[in-house]
Amino acid sequence: MCWGLDNRLNRIIKQDNRTVMLAVDHGYFLGPTTGLEVPKKTIEPLLPYADSLMLTRGILRTSVDSDTSVPIVLRVSGGNSILSKELSDEDITVSMEEAIRLNVSAVALSIYVGSEYEHRTIVNLSKLVDEGEKYGIPVLAVTAVGREMIRDAKYLGLCCRIAAEMGAHFVKTYYCEDFEKVVKNCPVPVVIAGGKKTPEKDALNLAFDAVSHGATGVDMGRNIFQSENPVAMIKAVRAIVHENASVDDAYKLFKGLEKEQNK
Ligand code: 5RP
Fold first, then answer.
1. pLDDT tens digits, residue range 87-138?
2. Nearest to 242 by CA among 50, 40, 53
């Protein structure tokens, strides 16, 4: 692997081989998502606790100070909306040159295995990897996005493996039963999305299950920024991912921080 690419990936995945990525890219097809109405307000207090920030170039330019040292994972696929008939109708929306100008540490693109535009999104992943390899920019493949997909180990394993075969340097997917099989069959690091907002303890459980079954970490959005106490929540997630805290201890930490904040 090229030194620059390796160096960028190492800025995202820390020395303990774990990472807490903060995903705030939802607006690229959902518009003003709850909790992200004013992105700067949401992002600023969370940034010190994020190992990287995943977002679009529009939100990066408008809502993140350029003196940040937090690695940026730039979403470079899109072209659809929540109103689109077919969510998989995505293409590459940002050039690699623009990603380099923005000094990002990685680029992210969704693949839609089993959907109408599967072929285009998978070929786009390969093309993006070619570009990334040229300039030393790692590529994150975001898998298994779709309304009607059954998110089991067989399907998620298929998605992650295809992403890795196309050359993705790390993969984002969903947690599922038998998750260790997904990880075992994928030769690159796997991080999980948090999914829809659930009670904090459930989200901490999800993070715990994921890392204890082989995930490199989380790329979590709504379960952090839609929490009543986003900073307390990201700190609790960090305790699980980086300190191997139990769910109970992480939840205690969350409640304690919440109490302090409400004093
Ligand atoms: C959408 C994405 C989002 O970043 C992702 O789903 C993570 O956020 P959440 O934890 O809210 O699910 O990549 O395609």
1. 999 999 999 999 999 999 999 999 999 999 999 999 999 999 999 999 999 9
2. 50
Ligand 1 atom index nearest CA of 219 = 7
* Residue 154 among the catalytic residues: no
- Inter-CA distances, 260 with 21, 201, 229, 232, 253, Å: 25, 18, 11, 10, 11
User: In terms of Cα–Cα distance, which of 22, 43, 39 is closest to 31?
Assistant: 39
Radius of gyration of the chain, Cα coordinates, nearest whole angstrom: 17
Buried-state track 75-101, b at ≥16 Cβ within 10 A, e below 16: bbbbebeeeeeebbbbebebebeebee
**Two structure tokens written together for 44:** 């600023």
Residues 225-242 have pLDDT tens digits of 999 999 999 999 999 999
* 50 closest CA partner among 259, 197, 241: 241
Query: By alpha-carbon position, which residue is closest to atom 1 of ligand 1?
Result: 26
Contact 21, 219 (CB under 8 A): yes
C-beta 194 within 6 A of ligand 1: yes
The SS3 call for residue 166 is: coil
CA of 54 to the centre of ligand 1 (A): 9
Centre of ligand 1 to C-alpha 145, Å, is 9
Q: Ligand 1 centroid vs 192 CA: distance in angstroms?
A: 9
Query: Could you tell me the pTM of the whole model?
Result: 0.96
User: Where exactly are the structural domains of the chain?
Assistant: 3-222
CATH number of 3-222: 3.20.20.70
